[in-house]
Amino acid sequence: MFSIVHRKVYLANKWWVTLAVTLGMFMSIMDHTIVNVAIPQLQQAFGADIHQVQWVITIYMITQAAVIPTAPYLTTRFGAKPVYVWTLTAFLLGSILCGFAWNLSSLIWFRLVQGIGGGILLPLVTILIFQAFPVEERGMAVSVMNVPLMVAPLLGPVFGGYLVTYFGWPWAFFINLPLGLVAVLIAHKVLPATFPQPHTRFDLAGFFTVATGSAILLIAVAALADGAYTIWNLLLLGVGSLLLLSFGVIELAQARRHQAPLLDLRLLRERTFLFSNLASIFVALTWYGALLLVTIYLQTLRQQSAAAAGMLLGAQALATLVTLPLVGRLSTTLGARTLAVGGVSLLVGATLLLLTLTLTTPLVVMVSILVLLGVAASLNGQIPVVAMSQITQEQQKAVANGSTILTVLRATAAPLSVALLTGLVQGQSHQYQISLAAQGVSGALLNQQSTLLAMHGSFLVAACLALVALGAMLWTPRRQRAAVQVDNSPLGEIRQR
């Protein structure tokens, strides 16, 4: 009798955890989609070009990448519940500050504050979900969680486009307040109590190298993609790469000395985890920049209002929302790997179709491409499931480390994608302007056509990145071996059971 009651409580608790973390992620994702739609309005409000305004998105992503690795330490030191509530609160504070920004520089600084909360929030969601569900139920759990999360990018562009069009860009940030307050209250009420370990050591050297290395590398890539091939930027690229390499060396050395590394990188020795992470990185490199360029294409080149562009972009999220329940059911029969391979293949095809866009492409064609991207997104949601398939529910430290590694690599790839693809558009459009002007093209058509051709170049780069992701996913083993065990002891040795 006790075991039956205990099982019912367990089932109830894990779905309450899902509800709590879904609300926080819902707010974060909706914020991202709304800010994307607001980019053209921010250009007009602050008199800035696309390269300057993209830092509103990039600085948020850089901050995320810098703070994500602290998640395992914070959850161990203070407990997952209070850290989750704190990060939601920090995100709300940043949102308020962003809404009151008086110029582009202040907005960028306030986005940094918002990124601290949003960054730590990302791995906490995965940690809490993967700790709550056993391995065989994670594919279903991720798909169930993703259903409401896909409503966020569906509502974000539509609702955000309306708010930005009729009430101004600050409401792209103020909209977070009511939902965020509800999310904080529910998380405080339903998340299970945790048992912190107050004497946990913080890996300061690891944090310094990964945070500064990520930031410097992303700044260098943004500058080089914009065509600024200066000695200084090349030096920054080298320094950033060296710091990240040093981070890897430091973490492995910490583990060998039986100390607590910021991230246990020994998980990357396992082939399934390694190649799934590579696929996740290159999917992110393809996705974020390409989707931002589609938003700019609709508003700048096709003269759609923010509200109209939001309605069109909602097709991508709607397609993901509709297909997610099917993906959740298929994950238990076909397997997460098969679905992920199909998703990355579809991403390659949809990205190549973006090369066919012209200044007069029927909007129904654009919607069709967005639908394909949406289906690809629902399938690609299984990549983390594949990566974590070798780690059992009971190995809580390994779950925290694996989830955080997945999140930090993807979060680093996201701003790289935005900086790289938008930088290529900014740099190449000038070259196309010179070429087209020599052919007699002038006026508004000159600016539009040069920007479109530059976008084609970026979409081609995105398609090549998606092909690399497909190769990595194909290298992931078809048959999964027994789960990898990472001890929760200081040694944390990795072995096959």
**Rounded radius of gyration (Å):** 22 Å
User: What is the overall silhouette?
Assistant: globular
Number of domains: 1
Beta-strand portion reads: under 5%
Mean pLDDT: 79
Helical amount among residues, as a percent range? Answer: over 70%
Structural class: mainly alpha
CATH class: Mainly Alpha
Strand order of the largest sheet: 1-2
Largest sheet: 2 strands, antiparallel
Shape-level CATH architecture: Up-down Bundle
Question: End-to-end span in angstroms?
Answer: 32 Å
Helix segment count?
18
CATH homologous superfamily identity: MFS general substrate transporter like domains
| CATH fold-level name | Growth Hormone, Chain: A
Low-pLDDT runs of 5+ residues are 1-12, 481-497
Structural summary, described in words:
The chain is an all-alpha fold. The protein has one domain: Growth Hormone, Chain: A. The chain has 18 helices and 2 strands. Helix 4 crosses helix 5 and helix 14 packs antiparallel against helix 15. The radius of gyration is 22 Å and the shape is globular. The relative contact order is 0.14. The longest helix is centred in the first third of the chain and has 45 residues. The protein has a two-stranded antiparallel sheet. The N terminus and C terminus are likely disordered. Helix content is 78%, strand content 1%.
